[in-house]
Amino acid sequence: MPTIIIEKNERPGDSWRKRYKSLCLHDPVWYDHLPYLPFPGHWPVFSPKDKIGDWLEMYTKVMELNYWSSTTCKQAAYDEASETWTVTVERAGETVVLRPKQLVLATGMSGVPNVPEYPGAETFEGVQHHSSRHTSGEDYRGKKCIVVGSNNSAHDICADLWENGAEVTMLQRSSTHVAKSDTLMELALGDLYSERAVANGVTTDMADLIFASLPYKILPALQVPVYEEMARRDAEFYDRLEKVGFMLDFGDDDSGLFLKYLRRGSGYYIDVGASELIADGKIGLRSGVTIEEIKPHAVVLSDGSELPVDLIVYATGYGSMNGWAAQLISQEVADRVGKCWGLGSGTTKDPGPWEGELRNMWKPTHQPGLWFHGGNLHQSRHYSQFLSLQIKARLEGLSTPVYGMGPVHHLS
Predict the structure, then answer these.
(1) Which UniProt keywords apply (predicted)?
(2) pLDDT tens digits, residue range 220-277?
(3) Which letter does DSSP use for residue 185 in this model?
(4) What is the pLDDT of residues 99-145, one digit of tens each?
(5) Does the domain spanning 5-111+319-395 belong to CATH 3.60.130.10?
């Protein structure tokens, strides 16, 4: 299929390279292979961001992808009469108009960064930024830092600041699920994505099919025993965290990390060391409070206390992917499509918050010709096949009825 990839960064992989220096995959290498070209056998179990960035750049060249770097998508509009998109991009200082039949927003699983608005933020004389703009703790040695949030990025950034000699405090507003990396790998992924699985003859394709064969509706009940065993094995670890005031949970129905990921895309941390720093008091913790006001050199918390601060990092997550659709296309189209991600359905009447499929992912949406592709490397590898086949069928003129397409459910 004729395809053009539009990327605003200068090089393939820059979306990884430009993140904070300590960023490293928390999923194991067997879970993260790319389609057609698996990582080599000597690859580290947990890959650092620059290694992934370089691999993606190599992948783009070896797979001979039509890749337009340094290109920004400015606007897209759909013409129903011709069933064609008009996509306006800026490339090397020139405006180029593309007219594809299909438009895929392959922007990950996250939308526009969520940046909270606090009274007095404009008066702050230190540095404040969202976690997506954080690069390194090297500039904050000896500085007082607050990280708002308690999920993966918040823990990573807290550890990075501590390792660089900053005095850092995590501001935990709500409870978080924490899973120790080694325990998670053994109990949750070991049968399919591990050195043990490879030794038992489980290939990546086989593991993907087995994993995808489990309907999401029955997945919570299957996951509960896994996390019950995790809680038993790591009871001392969890006890130490709770003693310093960290608010823990195992999900709404004790089904753990992966269901949190599917339902919310957040609310968890795979512990690769930051939790130990919190339990030992090396990373400060204020839990169950929020920022009420920001002063030029301090923050006032909801319990009335005041903390001096030089850096505020908002590790406060992202909105739905349809936020990009609102920016690039229109709010009307974003509302017509509805929420992306989360268990339910973007194409049928929502059966409930914890049932169905991932909303709008890898399948037709209420906007003809518009597709959403994202998720972790495992999901991107596996489901890209099916998204591609659906587009290929349309290109070849095959009948592509969408069964059960229900009415539009607006976000309101």
Answers:
(1) Oxidoreductase
(2) 999 999 999 999 999 999 999 999 999 999 998 999 999 999 988 899 999 999 999 9
(3) I
(4) 999 999 998 877 788 999 999 999 999 999 999 999 999 999 999 99
(5) no
**Strands of 71-79's sheet in order across:** 71-79, 84-91, 94-98
Nearest to 37 by CA among 56, 15, 13: 56
Neighbours of 30 (CB within 10 A): 25
3-state DSSP helix/strand/coil % of the chain, to nearest 5: 35, 20, 45
* Its pTM surpasses 0.70: yes
- The pairing of beta strand 5-6 with beta strand 284-287: unpaired
The total number of residues shown for the chain amounts to 412
Q: What is the pLDDT of residues 90-106, one digit of tens each?
A: 998 899 999 999 999 99
Nearest to 323 by CA among 52, 114, 43, 173: 114
DSSP letter for 330, please.
-
CATH 3.40.50.720 describes domain 121-314: no
Q: Give mean pLDDT, residues 302-325.
A: 93
Q: What is the C-alpha to C-alpha distance for residues 335 and 333, in angstroms, rounded to an integer?
A: 5
- Give 44-59 as a DSSP string: -SS-BHHHHHHHHHHH
Buried b (16+ CB within 10 A) or exposed e, 323-355: bbbbbbbbeebbbbbbbbbbbbbbbbebeeebe
Q: Give yes or no for a contact between 274 and 91, defined as CB atoms under 8 angstroms apart.
A: no
| CA 305 – CA 291 distance, rounded (Å) | 10
Residue spans in the chain of domains classed CATH 3.50.50.60: 5-111+319-395, 121-314
Q: What angle do CA 262, 266, 268 make, to 5 degrees?
A: 105
Cα–chain center distance at 298: 30
